[in-house]
Amino acid sequence: MSNILVTGGAGYIGSHAVKLFLERGHHVWVYDSLVYGHRAAVPADRLIVGDLNEPHRIDQVLLEKRIDACVHFAAFTYVGESVTNPAKYYQNNLVNTLNLMECLRKQKVARFIFSSTAATYGMPETMPITEATPQVPINPYGASKLAVERALADYAHAYQWGFAALRYFNASGAHPDGTIGEDHTPETHLIPLIILAAMGKRPQIEIFGTDYPTPDGTCVRDYIHVCDLAEAHLLALEKLQPGQQMHYNLGIGRGYSVREVIAAVEAVTGKKVPIKEGPRRAGDPPVLVASSDKIQKELGWKPRYSDIKAIVETAWNWHKAHPKGYKDK
Ligand code: UFG
Description:
The protein folds into 2 domains: about 5-170 and about 225-250, NAD(P)-binding Rossmann-like Domain (Rossmann fold, 3-Layer(aba) Sandwich); about 190-220 and about 255-329, UDP-galactose 4-epimerase, domain 1, CATH 3.90.25. Helices cover about 40% and strands about 20% of the residues. It has helices at about 10-25, 55-65, 80-85, 85-105, 140-160, 190-200, 225-240, 260-270, 295-300, 310-320; strands at about 5, 25-30, 45-50, 70, 110-115, 160-170, 170, 205-210, 220, 225, 245-250, 255, 275-280, 285-290. The longest helix has 21 residues, at about 85-105. It is globular and about 55 Å long. Uridine-5'-diphosphate-4-deoxy-4-fluoro-alpha-D-galactose binds near residues 190 and 206.
């Protein structure tokens, strides 16, 4: 049993991890600025509202709560915004993470799980993407995450930190019990946008590019259920040894095209989704599919959700139960 500090624990992926950690008997403290996170996504008695640019507050929490591991989700994640406002991304995702790491180092907390991303790979030429695929990010978001990975490797070497950098592909779905789910403002992610179009809350879904070199001309992505992601964090945390460096891709190893995802939403909801075919979105690689063999072999992780319809079903249940997202609460 650990006393875990979960930064960004009121966010989409963080809140699913917090729920799992609590179910498995860990002591969890969520540290979240609530800039993007939702108060209603975590138990009130676990939440500490704070920013990562306040090292003295972090010090205080680490000491008071006797924290012995940190799972760091807090970050800004809008790829497009990172291109137009890189300062915001380097400041929060890199500088603030270094602040946090320094607080942890001073308090001798040496177990760290880091939310990294497929965006650290940029536009790889070969699929599937393994952990050995060169990391060449093409936007400041991916670059900020890769910079932290590099800093962590140095901390592991110099200070005997055990860390896991988990490189997520497309996080999706919602908790099967319908209590927590995906609620971003603004929403930019494909599955919630299609569901909102199916519900008539948006006029249509725009397909960003229909001329890609893929079977149906639309982009292919590896959609991984958010609860499977959460499980990977716990496994990594439980197995980490001092000085150990873990790098793992997290996907299901199968890609779905934008059109296939739209078809899945139509099948699950029984509703026709209005479509507009638009131009490509800058910076979108045609195909991103993970090989997650390494975490499967080394940690015994296995995704429970491997079918897009099953993933969409959980997202649909969340949206039906919370038509205004967390504003319902
Ligand atoms: N798409 C559309 N229309 C939309 C929204 C998305 O066609 O309205 C397409 C995109 O072009 C892309 C796919 O649907 O091909 C998925 O797009 P998302 O925006 O849902 O996800 P991304 O693959 O762009 O990004 C995700 C995470 C990022 C992370 C990235 C890593 O959201 O945080 O994966 O590759 F950096």
